[in-house]
Amino acid sequence: MKCNLRIRTTQVFCRGFHQSSVIRSRSSNPAMQFPCLDKMEELSAQLKKRPSSCSLDATSSPHNEPVYERVRSGFKVFQSDKPLFLDYGGVLPKFEIAYETWGSLNKAKSNAVLIHTGLSASSHAKSSVDNPHPGWWEKFIGPGNSMLDTNKFFVICTNTLGGCYGSTGPSSPDPADNSPYATRFPMLSVQDIIRGQERLVTELMGIQKLYASIGCSMGGMQSLAYAQQFPESVEKVVTVSACARSHPSSIAMRHAQRQVLMADQHWSRGFYYPTAAEPNKILPHVGMKLAREIATVTYRSGPEWESRFGTERLNDERPPVLCPDFLIETYLDHQGEKFSLEYDANSFLYLSKTMDLFDLSKSHQDRSKRRRAEARQQYETQDINDEPTRLCDVPYEPIKKNRTTTVEEAREDLRNGMDPIKGKELLVIGVKSDGLFPYWQQREIVDLLGSGREIKHVELDESQSLFGHDTFLLDVEHIGGSIGRFLREKL
Amino acid sequence: MKCNLRIRTTQVFCRGFHQSSVIRSRSSNPAMQFPCLDKMEELSAQLKKRPSSCSLDATSSPHNEPVYERVRSGFKVFQSDKPLFLDYGGVLPKFEIAYETWGSLNKAKSNAVLIHTGLSASSHAKSSVDNPHPGWWEKFIGPGNSMLDTNKFFVICTNTLGGCYGSTGPSSPDPADNSPYATRFPMLSVQDIIRGQERLVTELMGIQKLYASIGCSMGGMQSLAYAQQFPESVEKVVTVSACARSHPSSIAMRHAQRQVLMADQHWSRGFYYPTAAEPNKILPHVGMKLAREIATVTYRSGPEWESRFGTERLNDERPPVLCPDFLIETYLDHQGEKFSLEYDANSFLYLSKTMDLFDLSKSHQDRSKRRRAEARQQYETQDINDEPTRLCDVPYEPIKKNRTTTVEEAREDLRNGMDPIKGKELLVIGVKSDGLFPYWQQREIVDLLGSGREIKHVELDESQSLFGHDTFLLDVEHIGGSIGRFLREKL
Do you know which NCBIfam families this protein is assigned to (chains A, B) (predicted)? Predict the structure, then answer.
């Protein structure tokens, strides 16, 4: 069944005075109007009216799901019926990973390149016969392409676990009761995500060693984690605009996004998926829009905005308003709105937290290993109960106000955790205009590994890119070129 | 009447499972708990129950206002019954400015120093007999103090117009109907704010020339605007962590804060003040908390957080949660919560926008002058109607997507607008760890004015301060010291 859930939200002209506020007959100045709020209220009303029979894929889920337009089809699904035990003590009793491939696997199975995606990307890195829409890395992959030549390489891209574009995530049914996991979904680490991918690569495809593992942003965390967890299973590693451990500044920005989204009343603590009993639940589209606007501020750079928008307003002759008014505001508003119905809110929350938690430290690995073993034992002895993960015995007000380890100790821990990666052929790319994963975080990766000739470090300065963290999506010349040369290079 | 509206919000231990979500008897993993949301819901419930007779100042307002604890008393009020015509075409038919002073005005009236505040500060820069609570610049002012010696200087500090600590702002009654202005308040420019201050200084105090005009952040915009609008009325000008024109990156961050606050259902398009008809309206405390959390990210710096919090979590042994979990998150949460009941949401929105609009350009001044004249004419001919400031004839979707002037043209416009400041004794201070008003914005002020010997430029590097934009609140040695030396200096 095909139906159009993509609601027209453009071209809202001025509406009447907001009905719920008191209309005052006298005031010293005109009352301000809020077309941006009118628009959001109108969208909420439209979402409530949508036909409840309309779903992304009526066969896989009984629920009235949001439409993730760009990736309705064209991917394959790897199904694993073996449980995946997780770094933070949870379990996925079974799981699915959506994936796409381009090019052909050679007989020796030695030409596979695995692309790890950023937070919100699907497996659709490149257009294909099955899905002709342009992929998110369209210009970086293809026959004869200078980065990923599909005449040579067998390119694989997956939707990460926790996502909503075909892989198991919070919107997927929990096998325990066949209702969406929602916030009963277990927290994932980046290492958990790549453990799922590794099953796809080895069990389904029979590939013993990847030629390369490539990722940008959260994908660049994954490529490092892949080399850390499976050092013998990958030849070359590329990490772009990523880090060895998250930084409190980035955590702070993602924290803000999560809290804003969770404050949307429609989020309903994650249980916003319409059910037979409550068919009119709506997505937390306002919270998603706002979270994406904050994220966009961290993805792009000030100098780019200075030259594109400056401080010009839509109309200098009008009194300023609190709804979007400066050009930069209309840009952010548009970015937020575009995203608000295209990605699952819970996937966003979980993967955002997964990024915060990324840490290649030895102590982190040791704890994770122990917890995975505990999760396995609990699962195998069927000792699963519904005791919630409460914060009951610690007060909510922080009892621990400052860090307990020194900066130096934490750095040594990180260096130890990265031991398995040492000696691997590694390309590290940083972008100086990136404020979210600043260039010193990529320098740190190189420093921690000790800069042998097997490590190549590229840093794009402001004259090469002003696109900030988003550079990897846009810069075919410098990002694509550097990766292409690295892949072709023989040590 | 004294009453305790300061609601205890600490020490919320675990609550029962959220009632509105379906309790599921079976799930593969435990459901996540949300103590941070429980706490906000509890606070909303408590706010609804507060006694409606309880108000900040029952004589000045019939409404059940929030308690702005720190500044209940101890300030004086300047009342102007002459209308103030505003840069964006609005009018304040009359207005009040709350102010405090320290030290004594000499006979020649030549020792007055006016301090302009940042967005959310009150007039209470320093403790006094009337209000013994420490002021926001407590350590920078006092008898024998190395920055502002009150044995020598007569120090004045005001609450800015648009604020909520005693000066006329959105929570004040509109004389047209004696109900709070709310979002019928007219938009203010920084220049409007200092025009109000100038009346206090000249009309009430009879001071013809200030010895100095000093400000940080939005206050640093004001001190520049004072010199621009009244160059003959000020001897020395100090601007700290400010700029000559806002930057799209800062606008973007403030935009995010505003949109988040406006999305709080309790904000009610600004009409959240309890009325006789609706005594149980509550403040948009969740939106304020979230906005302040985002703001805090822009006020402090990453390196400071790295050394204070690193990436440590409250408890490594617990599964991660979406409520505050990392130390940095509990810090942000606490900062947001502290602020959420202490400042008026509409004041925050208006003054945040005022900062965005700050621009010393010539074209901006010319437009403003014309609009003020139009406002005066309209007021004097009583041609005031209630026509709202709609965006009716332009579609909401941006029709103008990119800037229409070049970077160079805009810079020349700014240089021309700053002409009146040229030749003034000026101290410009920038802080390298400040991401909100980056150091190049202070360099730009100096460059635009042409660096004569009357201009002194101080730049604090990371070894001197890691406190980012907040440095001016904390750094007695470098900020206080530099300002003190500048004030004592004879050219």
Answer: homoserO_Ac_trn, PRK00175.1
